[in-house]
């Protein structure tokens, strides 16, 4: 008889969080249960509650994971010198990240998060602010270097950048995940880049 390996709390929490994102991608938050999440991990529901207080706690962990992953996208793009190409790298990676994890838009834009739960909504808002500040800093450096139109408000450009990604993700979910986000990235980025680099 095989002996089941006992994972550390940190590893098990990560497994549960990843499983929750997967289940939410299929069924949304309302349709997801702790029993099904536990089943995906390969543990009992009782064991799951050793690592999380309940479903809300798990959703909070999913939101934290998304925030960390977006921060990682910013870090990877930091190796690109050209500010416009840096933004393009982030844009493409962000869309690819969403395409790989359907549960992201089904978590972030859910009624359970945006309307019904102040704690979860605050987590999303803080993650969005941190990500937006990172994007805005790149835009401002691009303006200083003359690569991005100085007459455009950096905060507005950052909002347009994130808004384009978010609207595209919502439309993608509503259209039953078609067309592929990575296929749309080319034309979307091309249009956005022309807007921010054109001098009036």
TrEMBL record:
Q: Tell me which positions the record assigns to the signal sequence.
A: none
Q: Offer an example of a GO molecular function term for this protein.
A: DNA binding
Q: Report the protein name in the record.
A: TetR family transcriptional regulator
**InterPro entries, sorted:** DNA-bd_HTH_TetR-type_CS, Homeodomain-like_sf, HTH-type_Tx_Regulator, HTH_TetR, Tet_transcr_reg_TetR-rel_C_sf, Tscrpt_reg_YsiA_C
Taxonomic superkingdom: Bacteria
Domain HTH tetR-type, first and last residues per copy: 10-70
Tell me the keywords, alphabetical order. Answer: DNA-binding
Q: Which residues bind DNA?
A: 33-52
Q: Which organism is it from?
A: Geobacter soli
């Amino acid at each position: 008889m095989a002996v089941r390996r006992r994972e550390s709390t940190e590893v098990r929490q990560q497994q549960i969080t990843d499983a929750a994102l997967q289940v939410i991608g299929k069924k949304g938050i309302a349709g997801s249960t702790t029993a099904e999440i536990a089943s995906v991990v390969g543990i009992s529901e009782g064991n799951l509650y050793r690592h999380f207080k309940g479903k809300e706690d798990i959703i909070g962990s999913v939101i934290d994971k998304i925030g960390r992953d977006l921060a990682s996208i910013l870090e990877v793009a930091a190796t690109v010198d050209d500010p416009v190409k840096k933004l393009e790298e982030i844009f493409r990676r962000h869309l690819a990240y969403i395409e790989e994890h359907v549960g992201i838009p089904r978590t972030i834009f859910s009624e359970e998060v945006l309307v019904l739960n102040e704690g979860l909504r605050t987590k999303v808002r803080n993650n969005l602010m941190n990500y937006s500040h990172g994007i805005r800093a790149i835009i401002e450096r691009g303006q200083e270097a003359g690569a991005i139109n100085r007459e455009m408000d950096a905060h507005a450009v950052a909002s347009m950048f994130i808004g384009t990604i978010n609207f595209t993700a919502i439309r993608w979910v509503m259209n039953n995940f078609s067309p592929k986000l990575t296929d749309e990235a080319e034309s979307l980025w091309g249009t956005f880049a022309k807007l921010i680099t054109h001098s009036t």
